[in-house]
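Comment thread on ticket #2218

A.B. wrote:
> Attaching the input chain for the structure job we discussed in standup.
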Amino acid sequence: MPTQRPYSQIRASDAERERVVAFLRKHALEGRLDNDELEERIGLAYAARYVGDLERLMADLPRPAAAPARHPRGRVHARRRHQPTPALIIAGVALLFISGLPFVVLAVAVAALAVVVGLSMALGPFILIALLVVLAGRRHRRPSPPRWGRVA
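C.D. wrote:
> Ran it. Output below, let me know if you need it in another format.
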């Protein structure tokens, strides 16, 4: 019956070596390793046979905190997350009424303008003819002579 070896005694893969080298370079850029130490550790990383050898190269450097384990969410939770709350609905309706006021004023102004344009198109020719008749009547009328001698 074969026994399983500890993780540190498992052979390292090329991808694991590359991840360790990238980790070491990142810490060198942050000033935790000088160039000589970086070169030495990179050489040891590429020569490492086991995962434990790679871990020893990173043991004195801080590692990012592991992300908390995520629990798979069921479909019920995913649907519930997208449903708006009553407070959100009320706020949206209030915002609609508040922000909708300029649109109502604009709609009333456009409707009034449409009524004016419609009436002017319907009654415009009649008004134009009436104006022309009035102006023509003034032009043909002779002005009365001034009355100089009369005192009122």
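A.B. wrote:
> Thanks. Noting for the ticket: The chain has five helices and no strands.
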